[in-house]
Amino acid sequence: MFVHIVEDDAAVADALAIALEDLDHRPVTYRDGETFLAAANPSAEDWVIVDLGLPGKCGTEVVIELMNRANPPGIVAISGKSRTSLLRQLRDLPDLRVLRKPLSIEMLTAAMA
């Protein structure tokens, strides 16, 4: 199983990748939504961790594109935004799993279980 990490903060992406590797996952990182959508083709068995505050194509747009696929991967969104801002941004995605930064590996693995 691959875990695709779409995160523009290199330190956060790297920390997530290292932690997931330690749990025997195969992480792949992308710095923006456009690069991820052009390069990756996640299967239904894979997971995508996507930052909602991406530059360019925002994380919400990436999530919607993934959800519209015939066999979408598991999706976990991450964000450092305020609750009010998140509620506004996610009103069309009420069932999306969203984890607030700072993250812990326990939070992430529970969301992916």
Automatic annotation (TrEMBL):
Gene3D superfamilies: 3.40.50.2300
SUPFAM superfamilies reported in the protein's UniProt record: CheY-like
Keyword Phosphoprotein: yes
Highest taxon, organism lineage: Bacteria
Keywords: Phosphoprotein
Signal peptide limits: none
InterPro entries documented for this protein: CheY-like_superfamily, Sig_transdc_resp-reg_receiver
4-aspartylphosphate carried by residues: 51
Response regulatory domain sequence ranges: 2-113
Protein name: Response regulator
Lineage: Bacteria, Pseudomonadati, Pseudomonadota, Alphaproteobacteria, Hyphomicrobiales
